[in-house]
Specification:
Low-confidence stretches: none
Helix content: 40-55%
Mean pLDDT: 90
Radius of gyration: 23 Å
Order of helices and strands: HEEHEEHHEEHEHHHHH
Largest sheet: 4 strands, antiparallel
Number of helices: 10
Strand order of the largest sheet: 1-2-4-3
């Protein structure tokens, strides 16, 4: 399983997010992946990529979301295969908060596409804006996506777990989503067909005439904070820093009221 090969990088990302590696007695154990039956074609592709016996079965069961949920399950029992996956970074048992990007060379866009296909979303907001998002408990994975997408699109994200279930929700919309989707879902790549089709459609969106672009978030530094605090007025600080008065006033208020730490 050479992770510099796009198909294996994608497969490993998908398994990290949506696979389950279970131990049994002795050397027994099993890797399973369960997805909607409509996506069974992807599991068939995983079978082709795996040089060990594996099976794909289907079942219907009741879930919290549907009384008759049709799913497909890929099962792999080979000890050698499970050992390799574990060594690459697929933990046994509960893993959602533990997974991390591989520490060896790997095809990054394909790995991320596997993660997004399994635990993310690609589509349109209620207002019709393109979006790409990821929901994860893993700090390492959230930081990796934020860094990678930041270099690609220029978007900066502050990582913060939500208060309800302590999960990171990372969202990219409009042109940022278009750029990210086009980069990850390139022609001919291994992916969920329905998400590939949606990702392709994002490129058709055009910003409505008159819709202003939101300026990039200011990355405040200690030196910039010193200028804010030392300037005689907000207008002086804004002129020196090259920003409008509104964000400068907001940042200065946070500094003076201890919302953010003061520069040393």
């Amino acid at each position: 399983m050479d992770l510099t090969v796009p198909e294996y990088a994608y497969m490993f990302g998908f398994l990290q997010a949506d696979g389950h590696l279970a131990r049994g007695t002795g050397q027994r154990g099993r890797l399973t992946v369960e997805i909607a039956a409509r996506d069974v074609g992807l599991l068939r592709e995983f079978q082709k990529l795996t040089p060990y016996y594996s099976s794909v079965t289907e079942r219907t069961r009741s879930t919290n979301f549907a009384d008759n949920y049709n799913s497909a399950i890929w099962s792999l029992c080979s000890l050698e295969a499970r050992t390799k996956l574990n060594e690459l970074g697929l933990p046994y048992g509960s893993k959602s908060a533990e997974i991390t990007p591989p520490v060896i060379d790997f095809s990054q866009p394909d790995y991320l596409r596997g993660i997004i296909d399994a635990d993310g979303s690609v589509g349109y907001t209620g207002l019709g804006f393109p979006f790409v998002s990821l929901t994860t408990k893993s700090t390492d994975l959230a930081a990796y996506l934020s860094s990678y997408a930041g270099q690609l699109t220029g978007a900066k994200r502050t990582l913060k777990r939500n208060t309800r279930d302590q999960i990171y929700n990372i969202l990219y919309i409009k042109e940022q989503a278009q750029d990210l989707a086009a980069h990850l879902y390139y022609p001919g790549c291994l992916s969920l067909e329905r998400k590939q089709a949606t990702a392709d459609s994002l490129g058709l969106w055009e910003r409505p005439r008159g819709m202003r672009r939101r300026p990039p978030r200011i990355q405040w530094t200690a030196e910039m904070d010193r200028v804010l605090l030392a300037a005689p007025t907000i207008a002086h600080a804004a002129t020196e820093l090259g920003y409008s008065t509104s964000p400068c006033q907001n940042r200065r208020w946070k500094l003076l009221h201890g919302v953010v730490p003061s520069p040393e």
